[in-house]
Design brief:
The strands form 7 sheets. Strands 2-3-4-15-18-19-20-22 form an 8-stranded parallel beta barrel, surrounded by 6 helices. The chain is an alpha/beta fold. The chain is 30% helix and 22% strand.
């Protein structure tokens, strides 16, 4: 856990009391103090009008084809007047009503509007973020196909039962490819003796695990064939493991936009090449330099294997070599043990003799995924962004990556109130890494499930305070949508952006928006205090779990009924 020095903790306590009572911190000064401002007056002067960098920020749900240059500028000024310090804009999928080829990611109009938003924000001194990540087209590419190593890959498998002493001779069984993928690569063939079943798992005999890839040969048509005879000591399973593209893609984009490979640098190289060629004009680069607060923001890792016959693991062509170099042993014969039967990564196969070994192997896979994500995705992306004055901010959770280590590969780390329920204990998963590496800790704040236009400022303020108590120093509201959207998709009181499913809307259509300037100024003062002082580490907590805290849908409940409010750990 980290704490700022005691002077700043006392100051924050004072600010929380005083800032809600007035627009600035007011103190009474006696006659003898007039010539020399009191300590309280100095603090008041210092925090009365926080700089733009300390102000609340917002995500902007943008129906791009429904805007003109004038309405984009109007929306930016609405946010500025409310006290917003930066905008993170994301183009939504309105393909039922608007033409993707004209307005979506990759189009000339998208690039024009992006330039305009950065330019107008720069004039006002506001920061800007380009929203990206696996669930947003701007981190996916129309320039790649699922068959390329630069696109997201997964490991799939097919299995054949072979009775004791019998032979299997013929083509290796192949997986069903996701739509869009056309090629597969044979990774390994593994044989193992079946040794019973328990708890939805098939048990395998550890001593029997064997890499028999050398028995497989391609015929003149390129089909992989094998002649395999099972030993006499029991029934065997022959596993054929295949690598292929996940074909994961998201809208809106001018054509199908595929997710990049997060485990191989070929993915980031392709992304950088596309941005360099199609997005980053010299004018935009210059605007980014002038602004000084522009980020590439990567949303949470909605990254997954998509095939019918999947192991559940994303992959890369060099994965086995990377694994052995990092973990010190060959994973090949253990591949059956990393097959997952569900989203929760519960194994389909275990060992009769050593279930702990199965968990160790799975943990080693998770750790290897984490290191490849850091070294082949985040590090080169951050280096590239920093080279022209842009920073990298990310919600670095999802899939099976360890939560804290990738924080050192970012400029800023982000969490979210929806995913983590505004629970202090949950936020600690990232807070530890943020504090250890002295990274600014931000949160995508305020998304409420099916509660749009529902809660007042007091409700949201409690959410903000909980996050501040958790070590979060930067609030990004979720989110803002302007009044402008496709006519067919607008109902009273105005355009919704991401639909009522993901409220709330911090816009002028909210009745409580009349108080936004005062509320946001109050939050800005607190955020400025939270970024002062000197880092002091009291305690470090080492976690060894993976796939951390990403299953919130199984226990979703109102914010005011969470564990914190019920005095539960």
């Amino acid at each position: 856990m980290k704490r700022r020095n005691s002077m700043w903790r006392k100051m924050l306590a004072g600010l929380l009391c005083l800032s809600m009572a007035a627009g600035t911190l007011a103190t009474s000064v006696s006659a003898q103090d007039v010539s020399e401002p009191s300590f309280a007056q100095k603090i008041s002067d210092r925090f009365a009008d926080p700089e733009m960098d300390y102000k609340v920020e917002t995500r902007w749900w943008l129906a791009e084809g429904s805007h003109t240059d004038e309405t984009l500028i109007e929306s930016i000024h609405e946010l500025y007047d409310a006290g917003i310090g930066a905008v993170e804009f994301v183009t939504l999928d309105e393909s039922k009503y608007l033409d993707d080829a004209t307005y979506a990611w990759g189009s000339e109009e998208w690039i024009h509007d992006s330039h305009l938003i950065v330019e107008e924000c720069t004039k006002l001194g506001m920061g800007v973020s380009f929203t990206s990540g696996t669930n947003w087209a701007t981190a996916n590419l129309v320039s790649i196909t699922p068959d390329e190593q630069s696109a997201s890959q997964e490991l799939g498998y097919m299995a054949v039962n072979v009775a004791a002493g019998e032979s299997y001779s013929g083509a290796l069984p192949v997986v069903a490819l996701p739509e869009g993928a056309t090629k597969m690569r044979l990774e390994r063939v593994v044989a193992a003796k079946a040794d019973g079943e328990t708890d939805q798992m098939t048990l395998l005999d550890e001593a029997s695990l064997s890499d028999v890839t050398g028995l497989a040969k391609q015929d003149e048509n390129g089909t992989w064939m094998i002649d395999y005879t099972a030993p006499d000591d029991g029934d065997y399973i022959l596993f054929a493991f295949w690598q292929y593209g996940t074909a994961e893609n998201y809208k809106p984009s001018i054509s199908t936009s595929y997710t990049i490979n997060y485990l191989s640098q070929t993915g980031v190289d392709a992304l950088i090449e596309y941005w360099e060629k199609n997005v980053l004009t010299e004018d935009l680069r210059e605007l980014i330099r002038q602004n000084g607060d522009v980020s590439l923001y990567m949303d949470s890792l909605e990254l997954s294997a998509r095939g019918i016959n999947t192991t559940g693991r994303t992959w890369s062509e060099e994965y086995l070599q990377e694994f052995e170099a990092r973990r010190g042993y060959d994973l090949s014969k253990y591949l059956p043990l990393i097959i997952s039967r569900d989203f929760y990564m519960n194994p389909s196969y275990s060992l009769t003799s050593d279930a702990e070994l199965v968990q160790k192997i799975c943990d080693d896979v998770y750790q290897t995924h984490t290191e490849l994500y850091m070294e082949n995705c985040l590090d080169p992306l951050r280096k590239w962004a920093n080279s022209f004055g842009m920073t990298l901010r990310a919600e670095n959770y999802g899939h099976v990556f360890e939560l804290s280590q990738p924080i050192k590969s970012l400029d800023y780390v982000e969490t979210e109130s929806l995913e983590f329920f505004s629970e202090i204990d949950r936020y600690r998963g990232q807070a530890g890494g943020a504090h250890l590496y002295d990274k600014l800790y931000s949160s995508e704040t305020g998304a409420l499930t099916i509660k749009n236009y529902w809660e007042d400022n007091n409700y949201h303020r409690q959410l903000f305070y909980t996050q501040f108590a958790s070590g979060i120093q930067r609030t990004i509201l979720h989110g803002y949508s302007a009044a402008y959207g496709p006519e067919q998709n607008v109902s009273w009181p105005g355009y919704e952006g991401m639909s009522p499913m993901m409220g709330s809307r911090y816009s002028k259509r909210q009745p409580n928006s009349v108080d936004y300037p005062d509320l946001y100024a109050h939050l800005a003062r607190i955020q400025k205090v939270l970024r002062q002082g000197t880092i002091q580490m009291d305690l470090g907590i080492l976690r060894s779990d993976y796939h951390y805290d990403n299953l919130y849908w199984t226990e979703i409940k109102p914010y005011d009924q969470n564990n914190l409010r019920q005095h539960k750990g």
